[in-house]
Design a protein that fits this description.
The protein is of the alpha+beta class and 159 residues long. The protein is built from three helices and twelve strands; from the N terminus they run H-H-E-E-E-E-E-E-E-E-E-E-E-E-H.
Length: 159
C-alpha cells in the first residue's frame, strides 16, 4: 500500500505538460458533473430520494415520472401505462406485461392476439394485412444501468 502511495506521490510531484494537467482537471470536472446528473436515478446511502422524486425499490424516479413496481424498479413518464419493465403511451392498454406488449393507439381497431397484436383502421373489419401497433410504447427508466449513463451524461471533447 505504501509503495503505491509513494509511486502516486512521485507521479503527481513530477513536472507535467500543461495539456495533460488540463485534461486531468477536465476529467475531474466531467466526473463531478456526471455524478450530479446521474444522481436522480439513485437513492442516497440512507435510502431517501431528493425532493420531488419517488422511491422505487433501490432507485429514485425523477419528478416527471412514476414508479411502476418496487419489485421491478422502472419509472414511466406521467400519463403512461406501466407494462412489465416497459411503458405504453397515454391511452394505450398493456396487453402482455411479460413481453411488454402494448395495444393499439386510440382510433384504431385492435386485432390479432395478445402477444402479436395488429391495428386496423377504425370502423373496418380485422384483416390479415393490418399493421402491428406503432407509437404505442414510450421509454421507461429501469434501475441504474449504463443506458441511463449514456443518455444523461454530457459528452466532453478533448482536443
Amino acid at each position: 500500500m505504501s509503495d503505491r502511495f509513494e509511486s502516486l506521490s512521485r507521479k503527481l510531484a513530477a513536472p507535467m505538460p500543461r495539456r495533460r494537467a488540463l485534461r486531468l482537471m477536465g476529467a475531474a470536472v466531467g466526473a463531478g458533473a456526471a455524478a450530479v446528473v446521474v444522481r436522480p436515478f439513485r437513492g442516497d446511502a440512507n435510502g431517501v430520494c431528493a425532493a420531488g422524486e419517488q422511491k422505487c425499490g433501490p432507485v429514485c424516479c425523477p419528478s416527471n415520472t412514476f414508479c411502476t413496481s418496487p419489485t421491478a424498479p422502472c419509472c414511466c413518464p406521467k400519463g403512461a401505462t406501466p407494462c412489465g419493465r416497459g411503458c405504453c403511451a397515454k391511452g394505450v392498454a398493456c396487453l402482455d406485461a411479460a413481453t411488454e406488449t402494448c395495444g393499439c393507439q386510440p382510433g384504431t381497431t385492435p386485432c390479432g392476439t395478445r402477444t402479436s397484436p395488429t391495428c386496423c383502421p377504425a370502423g373496418t373489419a380485422c384483416t390479415p394485412g393490418c399493421p402491428p401497433p406503432s407509437g404505442s410504447t414510450v421509454k421507461a427508466f429501469c434501475g441504474f444501468s449504463d443506458v441511463n449513463l449514456k443518455e444523461h451524461i454530457i459528452p466532453v471533447r478533448w482536443d
